[in-house]
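Contributing new complexes? Match this layout with zinc ion.
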Amino acid sequence: RDEAEDWVDRIFEAVNKCRPTLHNDEHWEVLQGSGENGVDERSISSASSALSSPERRLSSTDSSETAPPVQEFDWTRTTDLETDALKEAVLYLSTDSEARTWTPLVVSLSLEAVKGFRVQEERKVLWLNNPIAEIRDVVPDVSLGGPAFFKVLTMRETLRFRAENPDEAQSWRVLIRGALDSYLESGEDVISEEPPPVLGTGVNGNLHRLVQHRLKENGQLLGHLYTVPSEKGLDAQSYKCSGCHQQIGPSRGRARLCEFTGQYYCVACHKGDTTIIPSRMVHNWDLTQREVSKKALRLLAQIEQEPLMNLELLNPDLMSHAESMAQAHSLRERLRLLGDYLLTCRSGACKKLHARMGQRTYLLETRHLYSVLDLRQIADGQYGNFLISLVQQASNHVLNCDLCTQRGFICQICHSNDILFPFQFDSTTRCKDCKAVFHLFCKNEKNSCPRCQRMKKYLERDLQDSH
Ligand SMILES: [Zn+2]
Ligand SMILES: [Zn+2]
Ligand SMILES: [Zn+2]
Ligand SMILES: [Zn+2]
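Output block (do not edit by hand):
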């Protein structure tokens, strides 16, 4: 058995050495914020899980499962350009969830939209139309097989494209990002009053800009989400209400402090509504309900389900301070590992789960991003149970799904027939280096990972051979 596994490992390693993907990293540009979106995190994790050999691939009756038909790609464009095209060329669009079949489309990018046309009798027929306003991000997608692949995330779906070559793919990504930037800048004269928060300090950059843009003038307040407000006093705002600019203060109208912005408002703009203040909760674990202005209350309702806060960056120590945060974090991690299975399962199980999540589909894709609603549920003590029910529903699917169980693991220490999954925190453990999964009771602190050991052995042998 060990011999057989050694062969499997050796073959995998040899194949991986030949794969162009892994050696082309220098071609990748670093895209701001995509990691915080959880997008790269996911594609990296799915790529690495595809490389780990202990995944079971049972023989399947469906022959396309093991040997996908070789597809011919034709990159010549025969039709006329759209009049507003910034770029137009043939791209292949993946039409199934596992990216096996690819459909050719003439894709045309303008400042307003990404359109895809099918060519029928040498004429273009509109097949997909995504307004730039609905695009959230454009990122490379290594997991699809190489640097010629990229995906466009829209509010409704993820479009996976294959370009003729890596340079073409990069050119598409740069131009789509450019169109997105120019769309966002077109609204910035309205919202330029507030300086944009520094990226890389826990702010989900792309999403922040998109949400801010959508909020129009209310977007000014969004920066207050991340930092605890400092109250500067009435004179700093010239004794005027921050909302309607009416005179307030001693001997004029009564002034009320908004604990979200740290600014003063008149009694018409501030009705004394109370809510938790996200920044105080994240930085000081302060769950007190505090008074906020009408504007702030509305803003918090508008962005309630947007995963704008990266807790890992804003305050990584929070998990160790608060037990309910530690529980939330552990459940979010399990949900993300379950997402690796559900998001690629062809059974459509994801749809049922998404129905219960509402807009919070990011729960399956990332563990560090939190929305205002997540924080409110934590403060109310409801978040744990909400996540537990999602984890239960998701693991019920994976453990009973023919497709998902094929992607489970076998313990390489005891070699029993149990199928193990990385999200079973109670009974399994995962090697940090090679991602192999073991029974918790088989792998204790003392015995090191057998798979890593074997790899080390081969590496040493290779070194000796080369001398
Ligand atoms: Zn006012
Ligand atoms: Zn499944
Ligand atoms: Zn075991
Ligand atoms: Zn290992």
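Reviewers usually confirm one structural detail per submission. For this one: The chain has three domains: 1-61+321-467, 80-186, 191-303.
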